[in-house]
Amino acid sequence: MVLKKIAEELDKYFTAITFAESGEFDTAKEVIAGNKKVLLALTEKGLDEKTFLYAINTCKRLDTELDILYIPSSEQKATALNEFLEKLKKESITYNIRTIKGNLKQEIINYTTVNKNVLYVVVDSSENLDVESSQKDKGFEELLKDLRCPLVVIKEAALRT
């Protein structure tokens, strides 16, 4: 148990060192000080076990809270989401869920602009970000430049039906 705590502390410091080496000194300080979060951005069609497990493991490894941006495609709450929330409770991961409407990529940018303590953004596929959007809203590449944390895209997620 003591070795596990030491390993967790080392992981936290190595993460902070990585951010500091890349010039993200404020993020490195937040990693060491705590109060850090992982942002999971989902749509109902993209609820996926692989993405959930990645978010859970990242939160456990970095000892963070999980914020969830969720865009439902219908008024019904998804069973997969409820199962995921139960797993978060079992793992003792503190989470906040926010149901939103609109464009997922813009909501991610808005959220991370206001919440500077987000270490990672996790999404289930680039399809949900409309990377290949016909709008070509100067958008995604320019918006990502303003994103102050890594974006982790879980590719080829096996969608639930």
Care to describe what's here?
With 161 residues, the chain is an alpha/beta fold. It has two domains: 1-34; 37-153, 3-Layer(aba) Sandwich (Rossmann fold), CATH 3.40.50. The protein is 46% helix and 17% strand. The chain has helices spanning 2-21, 25-33, 49-62, 79-90, 104-114, 139-146, and strands spanning 37-43, 65-71, 95-99, 118-123, 151-153. A five-stranded parallel sheet has the order 3-2-1-4-5, sandwiched between helices. Helix 3 links the parallel strand 1 and strand 2. The radius of gyration is 16 Å and the shape is globular. The termini are far apart. The model is unreliable at 157-161 (pLDDT under 50).
Strand and helix layout:
Blueprint: H1 2-21, H2 25-33, E1 37-43, H3 49-62, E2 65-71, H4 79-90, E3 95-99, H5 104-114, E4 118-123, H6 139-146, E5 151-153
Parallel strand pairs: 1-2, 1-4, 2-3, 4-5
Helix pairs in contact: 1-2, 5-6
Series of H and E elements:
HHEHEHEHEHE
| Global outline | globular
Measure the end-to-end span: 40 Å
Number of β-strand runs: 5
What amount of the residues lies in strands?
15-25%
CATH-derived architecture of the largest domain: 3-Layer(aba) Sandwich
Strand arrangement, largest sheet?
Answer: 3-2-1-4-5
CA radius of gyration is 16 Å
Low-confidence stretches: 157-161
Mean pLDDT: 78
- Indicate the CATH topology of the largest domain: Rossmann fold
CATH level-4 homologous superfamily of the largest domain:
HUPs
Largest sheet features: 5 strands, parallel
Q: Can you count the helices? A: 6
The amount of helix comes to 40-55%
The CATH class assignment of the largest domain is Alpha Beta
Which structural class matches the secondary elements? Answer: alpha/beta
